[in-house]
Specification:
alpha+beta; 5-stranded mixed sheet; 4 helices; 5 strands
Length: 159
Amino acid sequence: MNIDIRKGEARDAAVISAFNTAMAFETEGKRLDAGRARDGVLRLIGEPSLGFYLVAERAGEVVACLMVTSEWSDWRNAQFWWIQSVYVKPEARRQGVFRALYESLKAMAFGDPGVCGLRLYVERENAAAQATYRALGMQEQRYFVFEELRPGVNWFAVP
């Protein structure tokens, strides 16, 4: 079955936020606040400087998405595109859907002289995703990700 890839639009906000909610629970056991997730999707779609979504459709149904944000590399005088919020509906997995999303994104990125590469982070325990990324040509790097969240804000719904 054909897979069509396109940029996410406001009409996709409900499905993308549902995917984000499912992915957060599936991968990290976190329950997202549905309103905050929807508002976050709509904000990114409405403010292209923040990034963009790609969605994969089969027979007119959105079955997967990913989000792209950018990081400036002064060493390279170019941007890295960060792949985030990857989700493929369970019934569409292992059917080349993510590969189609990735290859489309890679063509966009490498066709833009202002983009030097693609990056993503993955849960350490998610061996299946790591194998997928390696099979697509991505290589593990030596970096760890650290973060500190602003205190006093409940970023997630109560589990």
